[in-house]
Amino acid sequence: MRLLVLGGIRSGKSEVAEALVAGAGAVRYVATAQERTSDGGWAARIAAHRQRRPESWVTEEVGDSPDRLAELLTGAKSEETILVDDLGNWLSVVYDTAGDWSDPAAAEEPIAALAGAVRSCGAGLLVLVGPEVGLGVLPATDAGRTFADASGLLNQRVAAACDGVALVVAGEVSWLRGGELVQHAGARETPKPQEPAAAPVEPFVFSSTGAGSVLSTADGGDTLSFSPGMELPLPDESTAHEAAERLLTLRLNGAGLGGLVPVVRFAGGVQGRPDPRPFQQPRVLVLRGDRTGGFAAGDSAEAADRRLNEVVEGNGTLAMLAAGAGASVQAIDCPSAGPAELHDALDDTGVDAALTLGWRLADAAANEGVDLLVLGACGAGSDAAAAAIVAVLTGAEPAALLGRVVDSSGFVDDAAWIRKVGAIRDARHRIRTRSREPHVMLSMLGGGDIAVATGVVLGAASRRLPLLVDGPVAIAAALVARDYGAQTRHWMMMPDHGDNPTVKLAADVLGAAPFLALRLGLGEGATALAALPLINTALTIAAATPLRSAGNEAGADAGDGDGADGLSEQEHIEAEIQRVVADSPTAEMPYVKPSWED
Protein backbone atom coordinates (compact mmCIF):
# COMPACT_ATOMS: atom_id res chain seq x y z
CA MET A 1 0.00 0.00 0.00
CA ARG A 2 1.30 3.47 -0.94
CA LEU A 3 0.17 6.51 1.07
CA LEU A 4 0.95 10.22 0.67
CA VAL A 5 0.59 12.55 3.67
CA LEU A 6 0.47 16.26 2.80
CA GLY A 7 0.45 19.25 5.12
CA GLY A 8 1.84 22.69 5.77
CA ILE A 9 4.68 23.75 8.05
CA ARG A 10 4.16 22.50 11.64
CA SER A 11 0.85 20.93 10.63
CA GLY A 12 1.72 17.60 12.26
CA LYS A 13 2.14 15.72 8.96
CA SER A 14 5.34 13.94 10.04
CA GLU A 15 3.76 12.75 13.29
CA VAL A 16 0.76 11.40 11.36
CA ALA A 17 3.05 9.58 8.91
CA GLU A 18 5.05 8.09 11.77
CA ALA A 19 1.84 6.87 13.43
CA LEU A 20 0.82 5.16 10.17
CA VAL A 21 3.92 2.93 10.30
CA ALA A 22 4.19 2.65 14.09
CA GLY A 23 2.74 -0.87 14.22
CA ALA A 24 5.17 -2.27 11.65
CA GLY A 25 8.11 -2.82 14.01
CA ALA A 26 11.11 -2.52 11.70
CA VAL A 27 10.81 0.61 9.56
CA ARG A 28 13.17 1.89 6.92
CA TYR A 29 13.19 5.67 7.44
CA VAL A 30 14.45 7.62 4.42
CA ALA A 31 15.61 11.11 5.36
CA THR A 32 15.85 13.53 2.45
CA ALA A 33 17.17 16.67 4.20
CA GLN A 34 20.72 17.94 3.76
CA GLU A 35 22.86 18.69 6.78
CA ARG A 36 23.47 22.45 7.30
CA THR A 37 26.02 22.92 10.05
CA SER A 38 25.82 26.71 9.74
CA ASP A 39 22.03 26.76 10.37
CA GLY A 40 21.34 26.05 14.04
CA GLY A 41 17.55 26.11 13.66
CA TRP A 42 17.66 23.60 10.84
CA ALA A 43 19.98 21.32 12.81
CA ALA A 44 17.53 21.45 15.74
CA ARG A 45 14.65 20.34 13.50
CA ILE A 46 16.65 17.36 12.22
CA ALA A 47 17.65 16.43 15.77
CA ALA A 48 13.99 16.50 16.89
CA HIS A 49 13.04 14.15 14.08
CA ARG A 50 15.85 11.75 14.98
CA GLN A 51 14.90 11.73 18.64
CA ARG A 52 11.31 10.68 17.83
CA ARG A 53 12.34 7.59 15.86
CA PRO A 54 12.29 4.24 17.66
CA GLU A 55 15.59 2.39 17.95
CA SER A 56 14.24 -0.43 15.77
CA TRP A 57 13.98 1.90 12.77
CA VAL A 58 16.80 1.99 10.23
CA THR A 59 17.61 5.47 8.88
CA GLU A 60 18.97 6.09 5.40
CA GLU A 61 20.13 9.56 4.36
CA VAL A 62 19.69 10.49 0.70
CA GLY A 63 20.04 14.26 1.08
CA ASP A 64 23.22 14.50 -0.98
CA SER A 65 21.97 12.22 -3.78
CA PRO A 66 18.32 12.80 -4.81
CA ASP A 67 18.48 10.14 -7.56
CA ARG A 68 19.06 7.51 -4.89
CA LEU A 69 15.49 7.83 -3.57
CA ALA A 70 13.96 6.42 -6.77
CA GLU A 71 16.51 3.61 -6.80
CA LEU A 72 15.74 2.75 -3.17
CA LEU A 73 11.97 2.60 -3.80
CA THR A 74 12.33 0.55 -6.96
CA GLY A 75 14.43 -2.06 -5.17
CA ALA A 76 12.20 -2.34 -2.07
CA LYS A 77 11.10 -5.81 -0.89
CA SER A 78 7.52 -6.84 -0.15
CA GLU A 79 8.21 -7.34 3.57
CA GLU A 80 9.59 -3.81 4.02
CA THR A 81 7.89 -0.74 5.50
CA ILE A 82 9.33 2.53 4.22
CA LEU A 83 8.74 6.10 5.44
CA VAL A 84 10.05 8.98 3.28
CA ASP A 85 10.22 12.39 5.02
CA ASP A 86 9.93 14.60 3.16
CA LEU A 87 9.45 15.32 -0.56
CA GLY A 88 9.98 19.07 -0.15
CA ASN A 89 13.56 18.59 1.03
CA TRP A 90 14.12 16.12 -1.80
CA LEU A 91 12.89 18.70 -4.33
CA SER A 92 15.18 21.38 -2.90
CA VAL A 93 18.18 19.09 -3.31
CA VAL A 94 17.10 18.39 -6.92
CA TYR A 95 17.31 22.10 -7.73
CA ASP A 96 20.54 22.56 -5.77
CA THR A 97 22.06 19.69 -7.73
CA ALA A 98 20.85 21.14 -11.03
CA GLY A 99 22.24 24.54 -10.06
CA ASP A 100 19.26 26.39 -11.55
CA TRP A 101 16.35 27.66 -9.43
CA SER A 102 14.87 29.76 -12.25
CA ASP A 103 13.27 27.02 -14.34
CA PRO A 104 10.38 24.89 -12.94
CA ALA A 105 10.88 22.45 -15.84
CA ALA A 106 14.33 21.52 -14.52
CA ALA A 107 12.68 19.14 -12.04
CA GLU A 108 10.19 17.54 -14.44
CA GLU A 109 12.37 14.55 -15.31
CA PRO A 110 13.34 13.72 -11.68
CA ILE A 111 9.69 14.13 -10.63
CA ALA A 112 8.54 11.76 -13.36
CA ALA A 113 11.20 9.23 -12.34
CA LEU A 114 10.20 9.44 -8.68
CA ALA A 115 6.48 9.04 -9.47
CA GLY A 116 7.32 5.97 -11.54
CA ALA A 117 9.38 4.54 -8.70
CA VAL A 118 6.50 5.09 -6.25
CA ARG A 119 4.10 3.35 -8.62
CA SER A 120 6.43 0.33 -9.02
CA CYS A 121 7.55 0.19 -5.38
CA GLY A 122 7.10 -3.33 -4.03
CA ALA A 123 7.22 -2.46 -0.31
CA GLY A 124 4.38 -3.78 1.81
CA LEU A 125 3.76 -0.25 3.12
CA LEU A 126 5.18 2.97 1.72
CA VAL A 127 4.36 6.31 3.37
CA LEU A 128 5.61 9.56 1.87
CA VAL A 129 5.44 12.98 3.52
CA GLY A 130 5.13 16.11 1.38
CA PRO A 131 4.63 19.84 1.96
CA GLU A 132 1.43 21.47 0.72
CA VAL A 133 2.58 24.98 -0.26
CA GLY A 134 -0.21 25.86 -2.66
CA LEU A 135 -2.55 27.27 0.01
CA GLY A 136 -0.42 30.29 0.87
CA VAL A 137 0.38 33.53 -0.92
CA LEU A 138 2.45 33.51 -4.10
CA PRO A 139 6.15 33.65 -3.12
CA ALA A 140 7.88 36.97 -3.73
CA THR A 141 11.09 35.49 -5.19
CA ASP A 142 11.77 33.62 -8.43
CA ALA A 143 13.20 30.67 -6.49
CA GLY A 144 10.14 30.57 -4.24
CA ARG A 145 7.76 30.57 -7.20
CA THR A 146 9.80 27.87 -8.90
CA PHE A 147 9.64 25.69 -5.80
CA ALA A 148 5.89 26.25 -5.36
CA ASP A 149 5.13 25.35 -8.99
CA ALA A 150 7.35 22.27 -8.96
CA SER A 151 6.03 21.19 -5.55
CA GLY A 152 2.47 21.26 -6.86
CA LEU A 153 3.48 19.12 -9.84
CA LEU A 154 5.38 16.72 -7.57
CA ASN A 155 2.39 16.28 -5.25
CA GLN A 156 0.05 15.61 -8.18
CA ARG A 157 2.31 13.01 -9.77
CA VAL A 158 3.06 11.18 -6.52
CA ALA A 159 -0.61 11.31 -5.43
CA ALA A 160 -1.62 9.71 -8.72
CA ALA A 161 0.76 6.83 -7.96
CA CYS A 162 -0.52 6.29 -4.40
CA ASP A 163 -3.46 4.30 -3.04
CA GLY A 164 -4.37 6.92 -0.45
CA VAL A 165 -3.78 10.64 0.08
CA ALA A 166 -4.24 12.49 3.39
CA LEU A 167 -4.17 16.21 4.16
CA VAL A 168 -3.10 17.26 7.67
CA VAL A 169 -4.23 20.64 9.01
CA ALA A 170 -3.62 21.65 12.64
CA GLY A 171 -2.91 18.02 13.49
CA GLU A 172 -6.26 16.86 12.11
CA VAL A 173 -6.30 14.28 9.31
CA SER A 174 -8.64 14.42 6.31
CA TRP A 175 -8.41 11.56 3.85
CA LEU A 176 -8.80 12.88 0.33
CA ARG A 177 -8.72 9.35 -1.04
CA GLY A 178 -8.21 5.83 0.27
CA GLY A 179 -8.88 6.44 3.97
CA GLU A 180 -10.86 3.22 4.20
CA LEU A 181 -7.73 1.26 3.21
CA VAL A 182 -5.72 2.35 6.21
CA GLN A 183 -5.51 -0.54 8.69
CA HIS A 184 -2.78 -0.25 11.32
CA ALA A 185 -2.11 -0.32 15.05
CA GLY A 186 0.64 1.29 17.10
CA ALA A 187 1.71 2.77 20.41
CA ARG A 188 1.21 6.32 19.21
CA GLU A 189 -2.24 7.86 18.69
CA THR A 190 -3.79 6.50 15.54
CA PRO A 191 -4.85 9.17 13.02
CA LYS A 192 -8.57 8.92 12.49
CA PRO A 193 -9.37 8.29 8.82
CA GLN A 194 -12.18 10.33 7.33
CA GLU A 195 -14.63 9.13 4.76
CA PRO A 196 -14.02 10.31 1.20
CA ALA A 197 -15.54 13.63 0.16
CA ALA A 198 -19.31 13.80 0.11
CA ALA A 199 -21.50 13.89 -2.97
CA PRO A 200 -20.36 16.37 -5.63
CA VAL A 201 -21.66 19.90 -5.72
CA GLU A 202 -24.78 20.13 -7.83
CA PRO A 203 -23.87 21.80 -11.14
CA PHE A 204 -24.97 25.41 -11.49
CA VAL A 205 -27.37 25.97 -14.37
CA PHE A 206 -28.24 29.45 -15.53
CA SER A 207 -30.38 31.02 -18.22
CA SER A 208 -28.63 31.91 -21.45
CA THR A 209 -30.08 35.42 -21.15
CA GLY A 210 -28.77 36.21 -17.67
CA ALA A 211 -25.61 36.25 -15.60
CA GLY A 212 -24.13 32.98 -14.43
CA SER A 213 -21.01 31.27 -13.12
CA VAL A 214 -18.51 28.66 -14.22
CA LEU A 215 -18.19 25.08 -12.99
CA SER A 216 -14.77 23.42 -12.81
CA THR A 217 -13.24 20.05 -11.98
CA ALA A 218 -12.64 21.35 -8.45
CA ASP A 219 -16.37 20.80 -7.86
CA GLY A 220 -16.27 17.16 -8.90
CA GLY A 221 -16.00 15.05 -5.71
CA ASP A 222 -14.61 11.49 -5.74
CA THR A 223 -13.31 10.26 -9.08
CA LEU A 224 -14.88 7.36 -10.92
CA SER A 225 -13.18 4.54 -12.80
CA PHE A 226 -13.35 4.27 -16.61
CA SER A 227 -12.06 1.46 -18.81
CA PRO A 228 -12.78 0.05 -22.28
CA GLY A 229 -15.63 -2.41 -22.62
CA MET A 230 -18.20 -0.40 -20.67
CA GLU A 231 -21.72 -1.83 -20.76
CA LEU A 232 -23.98 0.98 -21.95
CA PRO A 233 -27.57 0.89 -23.21
CA LEU A 234 -28.64 1.28 -26.83
CA PRO A 235 -31.57 3.26 -28.23
CA ASP A 236 -34.69 1.26 -29.11
CA GLU A 237 -33.98 0.30 -32.72
CA SER A 238 -37.41 -1.23 -33.30
CA THR A 239 -39.12 1.98 -32.17
CA ALA A 240 -36.78 4.05 -34.34
CA HIS A 241 -37.81 1.93 -37.31
CA GLU A 242 -41.48 2.35 -36.41
CA ALA A 243 -41.05 6.13 -36.20
CA ALA A 244 -39.59 6.23 -39.70
CA GLU A 245 -42.25 3.90 -41.11
CA ARG A 246 -44.99 5.93 -39.47
CA LEU A 247 -43.97 8.97 -41.51
CA LEU A 248 -45.15 7.14 -44.63
CA THR A 249 -48.67 7.02 -43.21
CA LEU A 250 -48.98 10.72 -42.33
CA ARG A 251 -51.59 12.76 -44.15
CA LEU A 252 -49.18 15.36 -45.57
CA ASN A 253 -49.84 17.68 -48.49
CA GLY A 254 -46.41 17.06 -49.98
CA ALA A 255 -43.89 14.28 -50.38
CA GLY A 256 -42.83 14.25 -46.72
CA LEU A 257 -39.97 15.39 -44.48
CA GLY A 258 -37.17 14.45 -46.86
CA GLY A 259 -33.78 15.01 -45.22
CA LEU A 260 -35.39 15.36 -41.80
CA VAL A 261 -36.54 11.73 -41.72
CA PRO A 262 -33.32 10.70 -39.87
CA VAL A 263 -34.19 13.28 -37.19
CA VAL A 264 -37.53 11.61 -36.50
CA ARG A 265 -35.96 8.16 -36.63
CA PHE A 266 -33.25 9.18 -34.15
CA ALA A 267 -35.76 10.79 -31.78
CA GLY A 268 -37.98 7.72 -31.96
CA GLY A 269 -35.12 5.49 -30.86
CA VAL A 270 -33.83 7.67 -28.02
CA GLN A 271 -37.33 8.49 -26.72
CA GLY A 272 -38.62 4.94 -27.16
CA ARG A 273 -41.82 5.90 -28.94
CA PRO A 274 -42.93 5.76 -32.60
CA ASP A 275 -44.37 9.29 -32.40
CA PRO A 276 -41.46 11.17 -30.75
CA ARG A 277 -42.12 14.59 -29.26
CA PRO A 278 -40.11 17.82 -29.63
CA PHE A 279 -37.21 18.24 -27.21
CA GLN A 280 -38.53 20.46 -24.43
CA GLN A 281 -35.59 20.91 -22.05
CA PRO A 282 -32.31 21.10 -23.99
CA ARG A 283 -29.10 22.11 -22.26
CA VAL A 284 -25.86 23.47 -23.72
CA LEU A 285 -22.55 22.53 -22.06
CA VAL A 286 -19.81 25.00 -23.04
CA LEU A 287 -16.34 23.62 -22.26
CA ARG A 288 -13.31 25.87 -21.94
CA GLY A 289 -9.91 24.18 -21.72
CA ASP A 290 -6.87 26.16 -22.89
CA ARG A 291 -3.57 24.91 -24.26
CA THR A 292 -0.13 26.40 -24.72
CA GLY A 293 2.54 25.75 -27.30
CA GLY A 294 2.02 25.22 -31.00
CA PHE A 295 -1.53 23.86 -30.59
CA ALA A 296 -2.67 27.34 -29.50
CA ALA A 297 -0.95 29.24 -32.34
CA GLY A 298 -3.21 32.03 -33.59
CA ASP A 299 -5.41 31.78 -30.50
CA SER A 300 -5.04 33.04 -26.94
CA ALA A 301 -6.39 32.61 -23.44
CA GLU A 302 -7.70 36.19 -23.65
CA ALA A 303 -9.84 35.31 -26.67
CA ALA A 304 -11.11 32.21 -24.86
CA ASP A 305 -11.94 34.40 -21.84
CA ARG A 306 -13.96 36.70 -24.06
CA ARG A 307 -15.89 33.80 -25.59
CA LEU A 308 -16.61 32.27 -22.19
CA ASN A 309 -17.67 35.63 -20.73
CA GLU A 310 -20.13 36.06 -23.59
CA VAL A 311 -21.68 32.73 -22.64
CA VAL A 312 -21.80 33.52 -18.91
CA GLU A 313 -23.22 37.01 -19.45
CA GLY A 314 -25.76 35.88 -22.02
CA ASN A 315 -24.21 37.72 -24.97
CA GLY A 316 -22.95 36.53 -28.33
CA THR A 317 -24.20 34.14 -30.96
CA LEU A 318 -24.36 30.99 -28.86
CA ALA A 319 -26.31 32.68 -26.05
CA MET A 320 -28.75 34.22 -28.53
CA LEU A 321 -29.34 30.87 -30.24
CA ALA A 322 -29.73 29.12 -26.88
CA ALA A 323 -32.39 31.61 -25.85
CA GLY A 324 -34.22 31.13 -29.14
CA ALA A 325 -34.17 27.36 -28.69
CA GLY A 326 -35.28 27.55 -25.05
CA ALA A 327 -32.05 25.91 -23.86
CA SER A 328 -30.31 26.38 -20.52
CA VAL A 329 -26.57 27.03 -20.64
CA GLN A 330 -23.81 25.70 -18.42
CA ALA A 331 -20.16 26.83 -18.57
CA ILE A 332 -17.41 24.45 -17.47
CA ASP A 333 -13.82 25.49 -16.79
CA CYS A 334 -11.75 22.44 -17.73
CA PRO A 335 -8.11 21.69 -16.80
CA SER A 336 -5.61 23.53 -18.96
CA ALA A 337 -2.87 21.68 -20.85
CA GLY A 338 0.73 22.40 -21.71
CA PRO A 339 2.40 21.94 -25.08
CA ALA A 340 1.40 18.43 -26.19
CA GLU A 341 4.23 18.40 -28.71
CA LEU A 342 6.64 18.33 -25.73
CA HIS A 343 4.85 16.32 -23.05
CA ASP A 344 1.49 14.81 -22.15
CA ALA A 345 -1.46 17.18 -21.96
CA LEU A 346 -2.83 15.69 -18.70
CA ASP A 347 -1.67 13.25 -16.06
CA ASP A 348 -3.75 10.23 -15.06
CA THR A 349 -5.34 12.06 -12.14
CA GLY A 350 -6.40 14.94 -14.38
CA VAL A 351 -7.96 12.56 -16.89
CA ASP A 352 -9.91 10.76 -14.17
CA ALA A 353 -11.16 14.05 -12.69
CA ALA A 354 -12.22 15.38 -16.11
CA LEU A 355 -14.01 12.17 -17.10
CA THR A 356 -15.77 12.10 -13.74
CA LEU A 357 -16.93 15.71 -14.07
CA GLY A 358 -18.30 15.05 -17.56
CA TRP A 359 -20.12 11.92 -16.41
CA ARG A 360 -21.69 13.78 -13.48
CA LEU A 361 -22.70 16.73 -15.66
CA ALA A 362 -24.71 14.36 -17.84
CA ASP A 363 -26.07 12.51 -14.82
CA ALA A 364 -27.20 15.74 -13.13
CA ALA A 365 -28.82 16.94 -16.36
CA ALA A 366 -30.84 13.74 -16.65
CA ASN A 367 -31.93 14.04 -13.01
CA GLU A 368 -33.17 17.58 -13.68
CA GLY A 369 -35.31 16.53 -16.61
CA VAL A 370 -33.03 17.65 -19.44
CA ASP A 371 -33.96 15.67 -22.57
CA LEU A 372 -31.20 16.79 -24.97
CA LEU A 373 -27.57 17.86 -24.52
CA VAL A 374 -25.60 20.11 -26.87
CA LEU A 375 -21.80 20.12 -26.61
CA GLY A 376 -19.91 23.36 -27.22
CA ALA A 377 -16.31 24.50 -26.68
CA CYS A 378 -14.32 27.74 -26.64
CA GLY A 379 -10.79 26.87 -25.47
CA ALA A 380 -7.52 28.05 -27.01
CA GLY A 381 -5.99 25.37 -29.24
CA SER A 382 -8.93 22.99 -28.94
CA ASP A 383 -9.24 22.56 -32.72
CA ALA A 384 -5.61 21.41 -32.98
CA ALA A 385 -6.00 18.95 -30.09
CA ALA A 386 -9.09 17.47 -31.72
CA ALA A 387 -7.30 17.23 -35.06
CA ALA A 388 -4.35 15.51 -33.34
CA ILE A 389 -6.61 12.86 -31.80
CA VAL A 390 -8.42 12.21 -35.07
CA ALA A 391 -5.10 12.06 -36.95
CA VAL A 392 -3.66 9.49 -34.53
CA LEU A 393 -6.80 7.33 -34.37
CA THR A 394 -7.47 7.35 -38.12
CA GLY A 395 -3.96 7.68 -39.59
CA ALA A 396 -4.93 10.86 -41.46
CA GLU A 397 -2.45 13.60 -42.35
CA PRO A 398 -2.70 16.57 -39.92
CA ALA A 399 -2.43 19.13 -42.73
CA ALA A 400 -5.56 17.66 -44.30
CA LEU A 401 -7.52 17.84 -41.05
CA LEU A 402 -6.81 21.34 -39.81
CA GLY A 403 -8.92 24.15 -41.27
CA ARG A 404 -7.75 27.72 -41.86
CA VAL A 405 -6.75 29.65 -38.74
CA VAL A 406 -8.65 32.91 -38.28
CA ASP A 407 -7.27 35.28 -35.64
CA SER A 408 -9.30 37.45 -33.26
CA SER A 409 -9.40 40.30 -35.77
CA GLY A 410 -11.01 38.07 -38.39
CA PHE A 411 -7.99 37.63 -40.67
CA VAL A 412 -6.61 34.29 -41.90
CA ASP A 413 -3.28 33.52 -40.23
CA ASP A 414 -1.38 31.04 -42.41
CA ALA A 415 1.75 31.25 -40.24
CA ALA A 416 -0.28 30.10 -37.22
CA TRP A 417 -1.72 27.25 -39.31
CA ILE A 418 1.81 26.09 -40.15
CA ARG A 419 2.79 26.14 -36.46
CA LYS A 420 -0.32 24.15 -35.50
CA VAL A 421 0.33 21.50 -38.14
CA GLY A 422 3.97 21.24 -37.08
CA ALA A 423 2.97 20.87 -33.43
CA ILE A 424 0.48 18.10 -34.26
CA ARG A 425 3.12 16.23 -36.25
CA ASP A 426 5.65 16.61 -33.42
CA ALA A 427 3.10 15.35 -30.89
CA ARG A 428 2.26 12.37 -33.08
CA HIS A 429 5.95 11.55 -33.42
CA ARG A 430 6.46 11.87 -29.65
CA ILE A 431 3.79 9.25 -28.89
CA ARG A 432 4.43 6.99 -31.88
CA THR A 433 5.31 3.93 -29.75
CA ARG A 434 2.64 4.36 -27.07
CA SER A 435 -0.76 2.75 -26.60
CA ARG A 436 -3.88 4.02 -28.36
CA GLU A 437 -6.19 3.12 -25.48
CA PRO A 438 -8.72 5.90 -24.77
CA HIS A 439 -7.35 6.84 -21.34
CA VAL A 440 -3.87 7.16 -22.78
CA MET A 441 -5.12 9.20 -25.74
CA LEU A 442 -6.80 11.72 -23.44
CA SER A 443 -3.63 11.96 -21.37
CA MET A 444 -1.27 12.32 -24.33
CA LEU A 445 -3.26 14.72 -26.50
CA GLY A 446 -6.79 15.36 -25.30
CA GLY A 447 -6.57 18.05 -22.67
CA GLY A 448 -9.26 18.96 -20.17
CA ASP A 449 -12.11 19.95 -22.50
CA ILE A 450 -11.95 16.82 -24.65
CA ALA A 451 -11.66 14.62 -21.54
CA VAL A 452 -14.70 16.30 -19.94
CA ALA A 453 -16.61 16.01 -23.22
CA THR A 454 -15.76 12.29 -23.35
CA GLY A 455 -17.17 11.89 -19.85
CA VAL A 456 -20.32 13.73 -20.95
CA VAL A 457 -20.77 11.36 -23.90
CA LEU A 458 -20.35 8.31 -21.67
CA GLY A 459 -22.60 9.67 -18.93
CA ALA A 460 -25.28 10.69 -21.42
CA ALA A 461 -25.35 7.21 -22.95
CA SER A 462 -25.62 5.63 -19.51
CA ARG A 463 -28.70 7.79 -18.79
CA ARG A 464 -30.24 7.38 -22.29
CA LEU A 465 -29.76 11.08 -22.94
CA PRO A 466 -29.28 12.12 -26.61
CA LEU A 467 -26.64 14.60 -27.72
CA LEU A 468 -26.16 17.04 -30.60
CA VAL A 469 -22.54 17.37 -31.73
CA ASP A 470 -21.20 19.70 -34.40
CA GLY A 471 -17.58 20.68 -33.69
CA PRO A 472 -14.04 19.34 -33.36
CA VAL A 473 -14.00 18.90 -29.55
CA ALA A 474 -17.33 17.05 -29.47
CA ILE A 475 -16.51 14.77 -32.39
CA ALA A 476 -13.01 13.97 -31.06
CA ALA A 477 -14.58 13.13 -27.69
CA ALA A 478 -17.13 10.94 -29.46
CA LEU A 479 -14.31 9.08 -31.21
CA VAL A 480 -12.51 8.45 -27.91
CA ALA A 481 -15.75 7.56 -26.11
CA ARG A 482 -16.45 4.91 -28.75
CA ASP A 483 -13.34 3.08 -27.53
CA TYR A 484 -14.73 3.07 -23.98
CA GLY A 485 -18.16 1.89 -25.12
CA ALA A 486 -19.21 1.41 -28.75
CA GLN A 487 -22.87 2.10 -27.84
CA THR A 488 -22.15 5.82 -27.35
CA ARG A 489 -22.23 6.70 -31.05
CA HIS A 490 -25.88 5.68 -31.29
CA TRP A 491 -26.91 8.43 -28.84
CA MET A 492 -25.42 11.24 -30.95
CA MET A 493 -26.79 13.20 -33.88
CA MET A 494 -24.89 15.68 -36.06
CA PRO A 495 -26.88 18.48 -37.73
CA ASP A 496 -24.05 19.84 -39.91
CA HIS A 497 -20.28 19.30 -40.06
CA GLY A 498 -19.68 22.91 -41.13
CA ASP A 499 -17.24 21.71 -43.81
CA ASN A 500 -14.65 21.20 -41.05
CA PRO A 501 -12.25 18.47 -42.25
CA THR A 502 -11.63 17.08 -38.74
CA VAL A 503 -15.35 16.81 -38.07
CA LYS A 504 -16.08 15.36 -41.51
CA LEU A 505 -13.55 12.53 -41.20
CA ALA A 506 -14.41 11.61 -37.59
CA ALA A 507 -18.14 11.69 -38.36
CA ASP A 508 -17.58 9.39 -41.31
CA VAL A 509 -15.63 6.96 -39.10
CA LEU A 510 -18.42 7.05 -36.52
CA GLY A 511 -21.17 6.74 -39.12
CA ALA A 512 -22.73 10.03 -38.00
CA ALA A 513 -24.08 11.47 -41.25
CA PRO A 514 -25.28 15.10 -40.95
CA PHE A 515 -28.84 15.84 -42.06
CA LEU A 516 -27.97 19.42 -43.12
CA ALA A 517 -25.34 20.73 -45.51
CA LEU A 518 -25.39 24.47 -44.80
CA ARG A 519 -21.65 24.72 -43.97
CA LEU A 520 -22.40 26.84 -40.93
CA GLY A 521 -19.36 28.07 -39.00
CA LEU A 522 -20.95 29.71 -35.96
CA GLY A 523 -18.70 28.25 -33.29
CA GLU A 524 -18.83 24.84 -31.67
CA GLY A 525 -22.32 24.13 -30.33
CA ALA A 526 -23.92 27.11 -32.09
CA THR A 527 -24.68 25.17 -35.27
CA ALA A 528 -26.59 22.55 -33.28
CA LEU A 529 -28.59 25.30 -31.57
CA ALA A 530 -29.37 26.89 -34.92
CA ALA A 531 -30.69 23.54 -36.14
CA LEU A 532 -32.65 22.71 -32.98
CA PRO A 533 -35.81 24.69 -33.90
CA LEU A 534 -35.87 22.87 -37.25
CA ILE A 535 -35.46 19.54 -35.44
CA ASN A 536 -38.40 20.37 -33.17
CA THR A 537 -40.45 21.49 -36.16
CA ALA A 538 -39.93 18.12 -37.82
CA LEU A 539 -40.90 16.32 -34.61
CA THR A 540 -43.98 18.54 -34.20
CA ILE A 541 -45.12 17.71 -37.73
CA ALA A 542 -44.48 14.00 -37.21
CA ALA A 543 -46.39 13.93 -33.91
CA ALA A 544 -49.30 16.24 -34.76
CA THR A 545 -50.14 15.27 -38.34
CA PRO A 546 -53.00 12.71 -38.43
CA LEU A 547 -52.58 9.35 -40.12
CA ARG A 548 -54.28 8.43 -43.35
CA SER A 549 -57.40 6.31 -42.89
CA ALA A 550 -57.17 2.63 -43.75
CA GLY A 551 -58.15 2.03 -47.34
CA ASN A 552 -57.93 5.73 -48.20
CA GLU A 553 -56.61 6.31 -51.68
CA ALA A 554 -53.49 8.42 -52.04
CA GLY A 555 -54.39 12.09 -52.34
CA ALA A 556 -58.08 11.56 -51.39
CA ASP A 557 -59.75 12.97 -48.28
CA ALA A 558 -60.54 10.59 -45.50
CA GLY A 559 -64.03 12.07 -45.11
CA ASP A 560 -65.59 15.14 -43.58
CA GLY A 561 -68.02 13.56 -41.12
CA ASP A 562 -67.98 14.12 -37.36
CA GLY A 563 -66.23 11.68 -35.01
CA ALA A 564 -67.63 9.91 -31.98
CA ASP A 565 -66.84 12.98 -29.82
CA GLY A 566 -68.77 15.30 -32.12
CA LEU A 567 -65.66 16.98 -33.60
CA SER A 568 -64.96 17.13 -37.29
CA GLU A 569 -61.73 15.73 -38.71
CA GLN A 570 -60.40 19.25 -39.29
CA GLU A 571 -61.10 20.14 -35.66
CA HIS A 572 -59.25 16.99 -34.57
CA ILE A 573 -56.24 18.03 -36.65
CA GLU A 574 -56.21 21.56 -35.24
CA ALA A 575 -56.58 20.31 -31.65
CA GLU A 576 -53.68 17.85 -32.05
CA ILE A 577 -51.42 20.51 -33.57
CA GLN A 578 -52.24 22.95 -30.77
CA ARG A 579 -51.52 20.29 -28.14
CA VAL A 580 -48.10 19.39 -29.53
CA VAL A 581 -47.10 23.01 -30.18
CA ALA A 582 -48.15 23.96 -26.65
CA ASP A 583 -45.71 21.36 -25.28
CA SER A 584 -42.88 22.62 -27.48
CA PRO A 585 -40.11 24.80 -26.00
CA THR A 586 -40.79 27.33 -28.75
CA ALA A 587 -44.21 28.09 -27.26
CA GLU A 588 -42.80 30.64 -24.82
CA MET A 589 -39.42 31.66 -26.21
CA PRO A 590 -37.61 34.40 -24.28
CA TYR A 591 -37.17 37.57 -26.29
CA VAL A 592 -33.57 38.45 -27.12
CA LYS A 593 -33.11 42.09 -27.97
CA PRO A 594 -31.07 42.46 -31.20
CA SER A 595 -28.06 44.76 -31.06
CA TRP A 596 -29.53 47.06 -33.69
CA GLU A 597 -32.39 47.99 -31.34
CA ASP A 598 -29.98 49.51 -28.81
Describe this entry's structure for a reader.
The protein is of the alpha/beta class. 42% of the residues lie in helices and 11% in strands. It has 19 helices and 14 strands. Strands 3-2-4-5-1-6-7 form a seven-stranded mixed β-sheet, with helices on both faces. Strands 8, 9, 10, 11, 12, 13 and 14 form a seven-stranded mixed β-sheet that branches. Helix 12 crosses helix 16, helix 12 packs across helix 17 and helix 15 crosses helix 16. The longest helix has 25 residues.
Cα-to-Cα separation, first versus last residue: 65 Å
Q: Would you report the number of β strands?
A: 14
- Which value, in Å, is the CA radius of gyration? 29 Å
Unreliable stretches covering 5 or more consecutive residues: 183-220, 550-564, 585-598
Largest beta-sheet characterization = 7 strands, mixed
Proportion in helices: 40-55%
Write down the overall mean pLDDT: 80
Strand content: 5-15%
Strand order of the largest sheet: 3-2-4-5-1-6-7
Shape: elongated
What structural class do you assign from the helix and strand content?
A: alpha/beta
Annotation field: number of helices: 19
